[in-house]
Amino acid sequence: MNAITPASAPAHADSDAHLDMLAALSARLLDSALARGADQAEVSCSEDTGLNVNVRMGEVETVESTRDRGIAVTVYFNGRKGSASTADLRDDSLAATVEQACAIARYTEHDPAAGLADAELMATDLREFDSWHPWEISADQAIDLALACEQAGRDVDPRLENSDGASVGSGSSLSVYANSHGFVGRERSTQHSLGCALIAGRGEDMQRDGWYSIALAAEGLESPAAIGRKAAERAISRLAPRQIPTGEYPVLFSAEIARSLVGHLLGAVSGGALYRRASFLLDSVGTQLFPDWFAIKEQPFLPRGFRSSSFDAEGVATRESALVAGGILQRYVLGSYSARRLGLQTTANAGGVHNLQVTANAGDQRSMLAGMGRGLLVTELMGQGVNNITGDYSRGAAGFWIEDGQIQYPVDGITIAGNLKSMFAAIEAVGSDVDARSHIRTGSILVGKMTVAGES
């Protein structure tokens, strides 16, 4: 089986009935919490199912089928918070969960920032975003896809003598969030993936690389053959790496790596880091962090977006808004608790951001390499050398050396270093080669100058 096809009939045809059940359960738990004296309460219920298979060197390694349920109850007694959870739907277990949450709250300290988000901020326009596409795939069919993917990659070149394997994953999620403001929000989504990692060369000269595809609908996945071939090409391209002299060079982060830079920005402007005074971007709203053409927009209403939603994890209505515009940081990323700690209002980001789009000002990666002329293309990062308090950045890297706008040879065993504030200001271009496999959508990002530690 080499083609990816959607189900002829949707799985979980009773998803609406399951959501009705979870909503009714949430209402019961809220009533129970309020009857025990809580002045506010919230409930999150979820049901998740999944199938994951892994193969390696033409043999099946693992087949895993999952079915999980989670019920979390949080209560507030005049600023004192208690939470408890269960996966058991029996009446006595549910009653015990509410009682435990209430008991915990009675022993916690009063926190003036604790509590539900303000009632007037609750979402009222609740929509779906074409995110429900169950895939009726059996374990045998998934195994066939994974084997075909791996074999297509290994057939590319005889130097691909080994493999880290191929995998297929398919999952669905149903969830309900409800609170004592009367808000009830339902969501359902699916996510499917196919990936392969191959090893080229022998002994100390071995190099590993891979590729994967991820989508909300199975027909959105790349074909097994295409994924296998791309994994093979990436692994072969890394053979016989060289070192480069230590120095300062332009660094182009490939699109799949570039989103980590946006991730570091999010970490620094998130409420938890800010109220703890553990961010290098304290008091930065309204300041110029990036070049004046640079922009990042949050788009929570994208059809088939990985993080599309009408409401955040507290029921607050989401909205399209700029995070960065004209290179200036427009706002922080806040839920209601962190907002209160900072004397601000929630930005509807409890639980995270909802689809970020980084505006491009350049062409694809090839044209960016031509414009860069000489420097480093980074395709892999290693280590966690980022200090969120100072912004200092130092990570192991691998990629390719560029001369005259062309890839010359692979490089590894190097370290790239700088400070995130300086790196943000030194961004010269964002490519149009957007990696669509994430809720952070960006093309390759060119930083004009970074320290690269290679040969002495």
If you had to describe this structure to a student in words, what would you say it looks like?
This is Peptidase PmbA. Belongs to the peptidase U62 family. GO terms for molecular function: metallopeptidase activity. Pfam families: PmbA_TldD_1st, PmbA_TldD_2nd, PmbA_TldD_3rd. The chain is built from nine helices and 17 strands. It has 456 residues and is α+β, with helices and mostly antiparallel strands. The longest helix is centred in the first third of the chain and has 21 residues, at 15-35. The radius of gyration is 24 Å and the shape is globular. The protein starts with 14 loop residues before the first helix and ends with a strand.
Brief account:
The protein has 9 helices and 17 strands.
Into which percent range does the helicity of residues fall? Answer: 10-25%
Please count the helical segments. Answer: 9
Shape: globular
- Indicate the radius of gyration in whole angstroms: 24 Å
What is the β-strand count? 17
CATH architecture classification name of the largest domain: 2-Layer Sandwich
pLDDT < 50 stretches: 6-12
Mean pLDDT: 95
Termini separation comes to 51 Å
Number of domains: 2
State which percent range the strand residues make up: 25-35%
CATH C-level class of the largest domain: Alpha Beta
SS-based class: alpha+beta
- Helix and strand pattern: HEEEHHEEEHEHHEEEHEHEEEHEEE
Strand order of the largest sheet: 3-2-1-4-5-6
> In this structure, how is the largest beta sheet organized?
6 strands, antiparallel
